[in-house]
């Protein structure tokens, strides 16, 4: 064998030995099996896991301010209202009461202090024999229709005696063709015009009679003669 052939044989033997040394035995135990290295999770997977494990923060509830309690003011107690705005004593202690104000020429009718009717009237002229004197007393009997000073008057109620009889009655009238012609209608609630009686309109006189004033306390104020003279 030549030198070159010998060298080739030696080289083949070396290669064969090296090859055999790296081939595992056919029945090698499992302990020598190589386990695959798990792949490193991708950044996408990590992000997904993180998103899954991290709880989603909830919105912090907005604090609600404690409501300021509303202060309810108690109404200021007021005095008991008077039934009427009159400065005079309307006699709320009485079931019914009548007041004649000769300063304003009005007759006021009250029930338990409350005004139920304001009646314009005309009292006696300021002359010495005609004025209506101040008075307090009960309304007397019903006279109805009477005739005096050449005129008639209806719905008359007797009050008291002065130079003559003082009454409350309708306006005086004359008869013309059986029609009543009333006198001094423009004086009611304006000025005195009678001979001492208290005159009121026919309509108010009829109402006054239906109200039945007999026995009711009546006050007639000062005649204010200086004012009307």
Could you please say which CATH topology of one domain applies here?
L,D-transpeptidase catalytic domain-like
Radius of gyration: 62 Å
List unreliable stretches of 5+ residues.
27-82
Number of strands: 11
Distance between the termini: 185 Å
If classified by CATH, what would the architecture of one domain be?
Beta Barrel
Mean pLDDT: 78
What portion of residues belong to β-strands?
25-35%
Assigned CATH class of one domain: Mainly Beta
Spatial arrangement of strands, main beta sheet: 3-2-1-11-4
H/E element order: HHEEEEEEEEEEHEH
Describe the structure.
The chain has 229 residues and is α+β, with helices and mostly antiparallel strands. The protein has a domain of 132 residues: L,D-transpeptidase catalytic domain-like. Helices cover 19% and strands 27% of the residues. The protein has 4 helices and 11 strands; from the N terminus they run H-H-E-E-E-E-E-E-E-E-E-E-H-E-H. The chain has a 5-stranded mixed beta sheet with strand order 3-2-1-11-4, with no helix packed on it. Strands 5-6-7-10 form a 4-stranded mixed beta sheet. It has a two-stranded antiparallel sheet with strand order 8-9. Strand 6 and strand 7 form a beta hairpin. About 24% of the residues have low confidence.
